[in-house]
């Protein structure tokens, strides 16, 4: 039996060593900026801390197996270690597969573009919150990581979400919380740069999670619309709070491009047989309510240049018949848009959501200039003068062109020019964060790892 134990222990040591080598591979690629992978340095560092904690757990169990144990105790420890190894690899696979997508030459450029758009959307809001003193500098988190998935639309998975939101096959480690947020992007959208504007909405969910906005906005809806909106409709609006908040952030960051992209999708879906009745369980507003609300949010920003986009959205919306029950909700749109964009929130230090990104007018001007280039191929804006062109405005500009219904050949030209412009914008050394984590952040990631019980449901 001692020979069997020795062999089993040696094998376990070999198996434990596999995971740290793979983590080190991505860390080295980020440090060397291999094929531009350096932008993920801060994210890989956060994941390394998470995985190191899990690896240390395995090594601790292995060390205890070397003691003078009974056969039964050795067998129990051996079995526990197998569960730990399998669980840690299951967790790592989620992130390693996402990172490995960037190693494919055909996927790397659009994925880099998506990562940079998502990171910039996140930073635009969180840097403002930090400047207001709402987020300590050492508390600034890593930005979202974009993962290609087989899905019909983008999906945000925030830090507070369990890993089961990423893979239905996760079992024993499904309750481990994410150290960094992930946005799932449909793989087929990599050839449609204009659809990356939808990341403005998805990252809005991440911002909501980090700043705890939606719970307060639900209360603000009650106070701001009491007596103006009947309680039965108030309750329905409450259920839509998180999605409307993400739409409001999407309009702030993506202005007309985001609103046009989402409205076009909603208007295509609106006549469907499943949209005839109000589904009170759906966290998303009904398309025939959500579309005019997008127009109302655009108008509420007070930028004259956005009026045309709002007019276009409303014109397309009016061309579709709406169920009779929709009409009362339309009278609520002004109060709802005003509450979400202008209500002073304690979570924002007594400021309104629209103050998270006050430069909408400048964004509109820059996106319009780029749209002219993407449409004609002439008069390209300088991607690095007087300052770096915002990555998040490239899909905004592309969407402005697509909204005019170009031909398939013209769509191909918009895609090509968009990706070329993305590549011309100087890349940051990393998406965000610092080259090293503060002790507080490192400790928080270690706590995440310690919180999981891989044996909780029998594996």
Keywords:
459 residues; mainly alpha; three-stranded mixed beta sheet; 3 strands; globular
Q: Mean pLDDT, rounded to whole units?
A: 88
Number of strands: 3
Report on the biggest sheet. 3 strands, mixed
Globally, the shape reads: globular
- Low-confidence sequence ranges: 168-175
Count, helices: 16
Which range does the strand content fall in? under 5%
Strand order of the largest sheet: 1-3-2
- Tell me the Rg in angstroms: 24 Å
Task: Please provide a written account of the structure.
With 459 residues, this protein is mainly alpha-helical. It has a domain at 214-344. Helices cover 59% and strands 3% of the residues. It is built from 16 helices and 3 strands. The protein has helices spanning 2-32, 41-65, 71-100, 108-131, 199-211, 214-225, 231-239, 241-269, 287-300, 307-318, 327-330, 333-342, 360-376, 393-402, 408-424, 439-451; strands at residues 145-149, 155-157, 182-186. Strands 1-3-2 form a 3-stranded mixed beta sheet. Helix 1 packs antiparallel against helix 2 and helix 4 (108-131) packs parallel to helix 5. The model is unreliable at 168-175 (pLDDT under 50).
Q: Can you describe this structure in just a few lines?
A:
This protein is mainly α and 459 residues long. It is 59% helix and 3% strand.
Chain-wise SSE layout:
Layout: H1 2-32, H2 41-65, H3 71-100, H4 108-131, E1 145-149, E2 155-157, E3 182-186, H5 199-211, H6 214-225, H7 231-239, H8 241-269, H9 287-300, H10 307-318, H11 327-330, H12 333-342, H13 360-376, H14 393-402, H15 408-424, H16 439-451
Parallel strand pairs: 1-3
Antiparallel strand pairs: 2-3
Helix pairs in contact: 1-2, 1-3, 2-3, 2-16, 4-5, 5-8, 6-12, 8-9, 8-10, 8-14, 9-10, 9-12, 13-14, 14-15
